[in-house]
Every structure is written in C-alpha cells, then in structure tokens.
Specification:
alpha+beta; 7-stranded mixed sheet; 3-stranded antiparallel sheet; 14 helices; about 30% helix; globular
Length: about 450
C-alpha cells in the first residue's frame, strides 16, 4: 500500500482542517436504463433527452419517475473508459463546455484524458480518502482522522430526542465518535454497506472560475496508483503544486488494467479487467529529474503536446462501448463497483453506446452483470441458492446467462437493498423450508 493511502486510512498523518472551495465535478462513471425501465414506453426517449441536455443522472431519474409504471430505480451503474462532464455539475457558466472543447476526443466528443494543476503541495488537502455508509439518502457513518493523532475515527450523528422547552440550539445535529475506524473489524463494512471513497481537487487549464474541480472515486486501485505517483513526483521535483516551466505536470486518464479480487467463499483470488483512474506526469523524465536534483539544477519537462494531440494512444479494445468492462473489484476484501458512487454516477454514452450490445461483447456484459448481482446478494446477506431459485421461477431457468433477465434481477436486488424487503427476491417461506430439507437449490 502506498505511503499516502496507508497514512490516510490508518492514522499516520494528522488531519487538515482546511476545506477547498469546489465549483464543479468531473464524474468517472455512467448510469444506463435497466431492462425493466427500457420496456416502458417513453423511457428511452426521456433518458436520451436528459443526456443531450447535459443534466445529472439524478435529474434524469426524476424525469423517468414521472412516467407511469416506472420502477423505483430505473437506472443502474456501468463502468466506462471515459469521464462525464456536463454543465449541471458546474457553478461557473461555460466551464464544462470549455473542458470538452479543449480536451475531448474530436472523434466522439468524449473526455478520455485531461491535464490538472494542484493548488497545494499538501497531499491531505488535495487528495482525501475515507469511508462512508449511506442509509437511504442519509449519511449514517463516516470516517474522519483525529486532528491530534491522525487515527481514523468512525463518526455518526447523534439521535434526536424530543425537547419541548423551545430552546434554540446552534450548529445543527451533533456528531459523535463511535470508535476507531477498522474496516476489517466492522460489520457495516463487512456487509457491503460502507465503502472506501477518495477525492482529488484540482484546476483544469482553460476552465474558468476560482473554485476547484473535484473527481470522486471508490477504487482502492485508483487510490494506490494516484498516491504513489504524487509522492514520487513530489520527492523528485520538490513540489506538485502549480506548473513546471509553465506547463501542467499531471494528466488524468483511465486505463484498462487487470486487477485482483478475492472470492472469500471459494478461498481464491481471481483476475479481472477494469477501467481504473490513473494519473501521469507526462513528459517528465524522472531519471533526468533525479540526476539534475543531484547536480542542483532544475529539471525540465519534455516539449508538451498540444491540446489537439494530447489524447492517449488507446487501442480499439480500450475504446469499447460502456458496460463491456468488468464492473466489480476487490476493495478491502469486499466486492465493490469501480463505478463511482454518490449514488449517482456520471459519464455520457454516445448514441452508439446506447445501442444493443454486439455478439463480441455480450459475454463480457453478462459476466459483469453476474458479478454485480452476486455482490448485491452478498450485500443483502441472503442465500444465493434461494435467490437463484426465485429468479429461475420468475425469469426462467436461463436467467443467469441472459442480459435482460440479469438486468431485472439487479433491479430487484437494488430495490431490496434500499427498502430492506426481500420478499420479492426470495421464494415463499414454505418453499425455502422445502429446499432446505431437500438440500437442493437453483444455482446462481
């Protein structure tokens, strides 16, 4: 684990009380219609209209729910090789358009890579990490480092008790410390209800406004890579703040990487592909940096690429349609989505991306959907065989190899996660008892 990630998550650094003004967000993921939502007349048009208008997925979901018969959760997250930039996520008029005009790929108008400038050298200020547990729309638990010791603490808001004295109080709902934040010893994290979150804060050259731009993510692999690069460059250059020789030092992009996740039930590690956020010090020859550091001279950046030619050299495989990359990853021993959650994800698919999948990528999509469904089953703590039995009865014996059926299963699991009601995803009690007695159950 990198020094930055280790120190932030395990208390080796003191907390910074400062907060930076944020004027916009670049989103790292997308959401698409579930199979159930797509079947409703007008849903696809409303979804496409929302994308074209550049509104957030929260707003798209609100529009969808105005359509009669729409399920409670009409959108589902998907991984993507690009970032989403829309006007709704920025307070400065024209900021989103400026970023896309300068750095989007001219072939499809999507943002695959962009330069960033950090406002400070303090990693704790520009690179924040922690854990968050959400219950419905409320943040129920979260982590904060102790300002004196740096130890990561679990926090929550105090319960509200009735007070008829009409006495006014200042400061809102009080916050209390639950205890040390220990993910591996925490039932909330173990049940999949708490996630690791990271955020980067930066400026993008050419984007107007004083406020910073935030990029949020949940991937521990992204955290490891980002922390290592920032610390290495800081050690070599002596700073990560601002520019070097008038040019941005860092570029952010996504790379398709093979990562490991542990299947604890099978007791083995598995390898899978994902799009992971990465940061590069482009044009910076680190060997030259250290050599010049020894000689006491300032290192030089290589000749910078112009904006129009600064796109990464991605293969066709890396430019595949959203949804074909592996969705699930191993994060502190628990399956998590690389899709960045607020629970609103972002990144805008092209018309081609909204089309039906081809034969070449169907297998990958099914694999990703199965992993997503299995992760939700584990999060709910229900029996996978009983869940499979109910889905077989409702969706057919081939449900676990069919994209539409898997999409419907994920929709039901998501609804159960939000409501806590599992009656519509498990067999009736008497059937569960019979299955237990026979020792048989439908495979997942």
């Amino acid at each position: 684990m990198s020094a930055h990630v280790h120190s932030t998550l395990h208390g080796a650094r003191a907390a910074q009380a400062q907060r930076l003004p944020v004027a916009g967000k670049i989103r790292p993921g997308i959401k698409v219609l579930t199979a159930k939502a797509r079947a409703i007349h007008g849903a696809q048009q409303a979804y496409n209209d929302g994308l074209a208008a550049g509104v957030s997925f929260d707003d798209i979901e609100k529009r969808l729910k105005q359509i009669s018969g729409m399920p409670a959760y009409p959108l589902t997250p998907r991984n993507a090789p690009y970032f989403r930039v829309v006007p709704d996520d920025f307070t400065t008029p024209g900021a989103a358009e400026a970023i896309l005009q300068r750095y989007a790929d001219p072939k499809d108008g999507l943002l695959y890579t962009f330069p960033v400038i950090f406002p400070a050298d303090d990693l704790n200020l520009i690179f924040r990490e922690g854990f968050e547990a959400w219950k419905a729309s409320e943040l129920s638990f979260w982590s904060e480092p102790d300002p004196q010791t740096g130890e990561l603490l679990c926090k929550k808001r105090q319960e509200i008790t009735a007070d008829k004295t009409r006495r006014k109080r200042w400061g809102g709902r009080p916050v209390e410390t639950v205890g040390p934040c220990d993910p591996n010893g925490c039932d909330v994290f173990g049940n999949g209800n708490c996630m690791h979150h990271g955020s980067l804060y930066f400026y993008v050259p050419g984007c107007p406004g004083v406020g910073l731009i935030e990029l949020q993510f949940t991937s521990i692999y992204a955290s490891l890579g980002i922390g290592e690069v920032l610390e290495l460059v800081h050690h070599g250059l002596g700073h990560i703040k601002g520019t070097h020789n008038g040019e941005p030092i860092f570029w952010i992009s996504k790379r398709r990487q093979e990562v490991s996740r542990i299947d604890w039930e099978k007791g083995k590690a598995e390898r899978t592909d994902q799009y992971i956020i990465s940061i590069e010090a482009r044009g910076l020859d680190m060997a030259q940096v250290f050599a010049q550091q020894e000689m006491g001279t300032a290192p030089q950046l290589a000749a910078p690429a112009k904006s129009s030619g600064a796109l990464p050299d991605l293969s066709n495989e890396e430019r595949e349609a959203p949804g074909t990359g592996e969705l699930m990853e191993e994060t502190h021993g628990e399956l998590q989505g690389e899709v960045e959650i607020e629970q609103e994800q972002a990144a805008e698919p092209t018309p081609a991306a909204s089309a039906a999948p081809t034969a070449d990528n169907t297998k990958d999509i099914v694999k990703a959907l199965r992993a997503e469904a299995f992760a939700l089953v584990k999060k709910l703590g229900i029996d996978a065989k009983l869940f499979g039995e109910r889905m077989s009865a409702d969706l057919g014996d081939e449900w676990s190899t069919n994209m539409e059926a898997l999409d419907e299963a994920i929709t039901r699991l998501t609804e159960a996660t939000q409501s806590g009601d599992t009656t519509h995803i498990l067999p009736p009690v008497q059937e569960q008892q019979a299955a237990a007695a026979s020792g048989k159950g439908a495979p997942f």
